[in-house]
Amino acid sequence: MEHFYQLGWTLDSAGGASGEAYMAEQDGRKLFLKRNSSPFLAALSAEGIVPKLVWTKRIETGEVVTAQHWKNGRSLMHDEMKSNRVALMLRKIHKSTQLLNMLKRLEMEPMYPSMLLKKINSSLSRNVLTHHVIRKSLLYLEEHMPNLNSAFYTVCHGDVNHNNWLLSEQDELFLVDWEGAMIADPAIDIGMILYTYIEPAEWCDWLSKYGIQDTLDLRKRMKWYTIIQAIAMVEWYEEKNRFQDMNEWLQFLNDVLMMNRFI
């Protein structure tokens, strides 16, 4: 990012797993800069899902840098994930034909359950596969694969944990970090929110806020996708040698398997 230093900007890392994001400041003006963002960012900005896109530039290295308004704020707390605003924002994303058309123009193909299962099976290490909960989970995934007509597939975020929800000081709500965006069954997002943040007794109420009926088919699909995402988290933490976090996800995975055990 030497280009921006030469133009008189000060840059500080904005964190994130990729190391590609920065807070840039010049003459009291702050921007959020990111290298190699997807063109999908422009559509998200236009929909008000992420902070407003200010410009996109190709710099001397050939990299594309995007600039968004910097928003002072914080991540949502666990209890805030059950709010109406989260449900309505997620519904807006899942119902957006503009976002869906953009991903299709970028030639993204739908992510079917069989593809997700193949991907997770090919990525698991021998150490992760030694856990009986993982083996039991993989068997469940094989035996209960969802079957939803792809005509109902939508734009999904794929990682809707509370740290990716930004509440600005102006009380604006955004969903950020769209690197894992996909065209998929919306239950992939809904399930993780319900299983992670909301008591089962409140699921029906939250789904009503979102605008969908609580059906047996939906519960089956939510459970399947939550299991496969939890396995991916176990693998990720094992790779990082963060074994306490890995064990917490193994416990979460076992809890999900035991909940609604007859579906």
Automatic annotation (TrEMBL):
InterPro entries named in the record: Aminoglycoside_PTrfase, CcrZ_PhaseVar_Mediator, Kinase-like_dom_sf
Domain Aminoglycoside phosphotransferase: 14-224
Taxonomic superkingdom: Bacteria
Pfam families registered for this protein in UniProt: APH
Gene3D superfamilies, per database record: 3.90.1200.10
Name of the protein this chain belongs to: Phosphotransferase family protein
Organism: Macrococcus equipercicus
